[in-house]
Design a protein that fits this description.
elongated; alpha+beta; 133 residues; five-stranded antiparallel sheet; 35% strand
Amino acid sequence: MRFEDLAVGQTLPKLAIPITVTLIAGGAIATRDYFAGHHDLEAARALGSPHIFMNILTTSGLVQRFVESWAGPDCEFRSLKIKLGVPNYPGDTMTFSGEVSALDAGQRCVDVALKGSNSMGPHVTATVRLHLR
């Protein structure tokens, strides 16, 4: 990815992520989030949830995966601002979409506005600032 090739409004390629029990439970465990609603079906149901649900740190990691798969491994994350919406449950798919929302030529930074949606609506909306070498 070259900074000089970017333009405000440029769209990122969509990325579909199948939401599985393994992704949700594995992401929670990998981030040391042992809250039962992320890995125990009965505990999640006792909370009023139909199934286990994804934690915010897994969502954050998937946002970073989406942006880095577009920008490349040499990008440097400067900021990540996320807002959660509807839950991610197993058996659904979250599809990311995004676009370049701002460019700072002096700092060689690009802002990306993105959304990750599932069948119920937006799971996450985010703004990411990257520095490109």
